[in-house]
């Protein structure tokens, strides 16, 4: 599985660094910083779609 492969890589390369946050011991796919920022983007996007702005009502 992917998780066992990742664990194997981390155990053989303890100095592995995340491309997203630049911290060590994890990869971008498992980055909590990246996941949090993606959740914020999703929330903001959903709010923009569900709430029409005052400018769009004038048209």
From TrEMBL:
One of its GO terms (molecular function) is nucleic acid binding. It comes from the Eukaryota. Residues 18-31 form the CCHC-type domain. It holds the Pfam family zf-CCHC. Keywords: Metal-binding, Zinc, Zinc-finger. SUPFAM superfamilies: Retrovirus zinc finger-like domains. PROSITE patterns: ZF_CCHC. InterPro entries: Znf_CCHC (IPR001878), Znf_CCHC_sf (IPR036875). The keyword Ribonucleoprotein does not apply. This is CCHC-type domain-containing protein. It comes from Paracoccidioides brasiliensis.
């Amino acid at each position: 599985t992917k998780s066992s492969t990742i664990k194997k890589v981390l155990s053989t390369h303890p100095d592995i660094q995340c491309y997203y946050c630049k911290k060590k011991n994890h990869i971008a796919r498992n980055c909590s910083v990246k996941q949090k920022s993606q959740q914020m983007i999703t929330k903001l996007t959903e709010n923009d779609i569900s709430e029409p702005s005052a400018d769009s009502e004038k048209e």
